[in-house]
Amino acid sequence: MSAAPQLSAWLDGVGLIAPGLPDWSTAAAVLAGQGTYASAPSVLPAPALLPPAERRRASRVVRIALASGLAALDHAGLDPAGVATVFSASTADGHNCHALCETLASDDQRVSPTRFHNSLHNTPAGYWSIATGAMAASQSLCAHDGSFAAGLLETLVQVGCSGASCALIAYDAEYPAPLAAARPIPDAGGIGLVLSPSRGPRSLAQISVSLSDAPVTALADPQLDALRLAIPALRGLPLLALLATRRAGGAALEYLAPLSLQVTVSPC
User: Which of 33, 70, 191, 242 could be stapled to 265 by a disulfide with Cβ–Cβ 3.0 to 4.6 Å?
Assistant: First the structure.
């Protein structure tokens, strides 16, 4: 491809929850080669900010989205109530989808209103506004396995247009059988990033992105690369690996074939 225009911003906070990687500090050590990866089920914190009724209804998709996003904003030292958000996921709530299909396949096809509103792709964004009191703009999008890259592009555009910080919250969770046969995501995983238009006291790096036709960057550790491929939201792990090593470099992230998203990181 010919040279493509770049979008840039400063990265001020990271949140991560994934199988065997319960938080960003643990993941940073593993991705930098200073710790050993050990696979384990994702641990999803209870959404304590939600009122009791909504907390009981919160699905695994909602819990992974809230936990990874709140961790990123806490890392950046920002109040989530005042930060715009971009929610990006390759799928919606698999368990809820399964329950709706069971209802529609039964003799009593009356769909629960709670089930219905939890089936929408922007449900995590709604729970986020309830939990945080956020009134800032929010986008919810999907680009199948390229959803992390699409969300990162959208977040950078929001930062550039608004001149204010914006949080990317990329997440996915598993489907139960038999839907799992068509979409075999093994567990929940989420990445939260806080991007800002200018360097601040908590900035970790400047990142720049552009569209590319370069092959997607794989992780050197076979187990970590298998994790990257298993959960679509974790297609962003090569970017996090650059942040973890604290060295300047680049990586090509999966986007919409034949395009990839070239990301360049310059640590502070």
Answer: 242
Of 11, 138, 121, give the one whose Cα is nearest residue 72: 11
Other beta carbons within 10 angstroms of residue 197's beta carbon come to 17
Domain holding 173, by residue range, is 7-202
Q: What is the mean pLDDT of each run of 10 residues along the chain (268 residues)?
A: 76 98 98 96 94 90 97 98 97 89 92 86 95 96 97 98 98 95 96 98 98 97 98 98 96 97 97
Beta bridge partners of 212: 260
Distance in angstroms (rounded) separating the CA atoms of residues 172 and 190: 6
> Which residues fall within 8 angstroms of residue 205, CB to CB, at 6 or more apart?
10, 11, 242, 243, 265, 266, 267, 268
- pTM here? 0.95
Specify if 109 maps to a domain.
Answer: yes
